[in-house]
Structures are given as C-alpha cells and as structure tokens.
Amino acid sequence: MVLSEAEALARLEALRRQRDAIERQITDLLLYLDLGRRLGGPASPDADGRADAPIPVPEPTPQPAQAPVAAPPAPPSAAPERPPVPAFAVPVEGEAGLSETVLARRYGRALIEAVLAVLEEAGRPMHASEILARISEQGFSLPGQDPVAALNTRLWKRSGPGGPLKRLGDAVYAPADAEEA
Predict the structure, then answer these.
(1) Where are the alpha helices (DSSP H) in the chain?
(2) Could you give the CA distance from residue 87 to residue 72 in angstroms, rounded to a whole number?
(3) Phi/psi of residue 55, nearest 5 degrees
(4) Three-class SS state of 39
(5) Is 9 exposed, middle or buried (0-12, 13-18, 19+ CB in 10 A)?
(6) pTM score > 0.70 for this model?
(7) C-beta neighbour count of 164 within 10 angstroms
(8) Could you report the per-residue pLDDT of 63-122, keeping only the tens digit for each?
(9) Distance between CA atoms of 91 and 88, rounded to whole angstroms?
(10) Judging by DSSP bridges, how do beta strands 172-175 and 126-127 pair with one another?
C-alpha cells in the first residue's frame, strides 16, 4: 500500500500531535514529582521496599527535526530537614492500629501539657512565640506557614471557661489557675 502525499502529511501531523501530548504528560509528571519532593511528601517504596530510593523518571526519546523543549526543573539539592518526631506521637507495641485522628489528638494533648509545663517553669505569662521556641526544643512542631499563629489558635481554643489556660492579651497565656499579674 502506497500513501499519497496528503495521507502521509496527515499521518505525520497526527503523530506529531501524539508526540506533543506525550511530552506535555511527561513534563506534567516531572513537575508533579518535583513538587512532591519539595513538599516532602511520603516517598513510595521501590521494588526493593526502600522508601528513600529515587523514583525513576523515563526520559523522552529524541525525535529528529524536533522543536526545542524546555528542560525539566532541576531537583532540589537537599530535602528540607524535618524535626524529630516525639516518642509519644509514635504508636507503641499494641497500638499500631490507632487511627491518625487518635494519634493527632494524643499529640495535641501532649502539646498542651508541654505548654503548661513551660508556663509553670517560667512562672509568668508568656507570648505564643516564646512558648513555641521552648516547646520546639522538646521536639514539638506545628504545621503551616506560621507556626506561632497555629499555636496561638490551639492555645486560644483551650483558654475558654474550664480550660487549662487563661488568655491575658494578644497571644499571651498563663495557666488557668494562675492569678493575673
């Protein structure tokens, strides 16, 4: 079977459109992987079961007479360090089936207990930023772009009637049983 020039040009154009679509998909996947690495998402285990192995990314096959394609973004030089996970946030033997919700609540209670200990040790009301600095030394961390605001919100919620904390001003807290100074 011999193709006419019009048929050959039509098939060539269809193949170029397919190639462009595949290159867009490859670029999207490379960007997705890069974003996942930058955000420090959970790594998926490789064939050996190791979660820290790099994910193989297929390279596009070069095509003759191809327009230049933008190079994929370079992977970050080093992954951001994560603070150590406190021991109470990791399930112990017999607790492996606990849900994330239960572990998050346990972490929240331990965080408030640590805040109360810091406030009692200081013997004075403290600003949320001072409290965060002290509990960070103990291995606690708070998510988000502004950890002080995240801590302030948690402390504010626990400073209501019957709560363990008392709010004395903007982001300033003391134990509920302490007298105002």
Answers:
(1) 5-39, 100-122, 128-137, 147-157
(2) 40
(3) -85, 125
(4) helix
(5) exposed
(6) no
(7) 16
(8) 555 444 454 455 555 544 544 545 555 545 555 567 788 888 888 889 999 999 999 999
(9) 7
(10) antiparallel
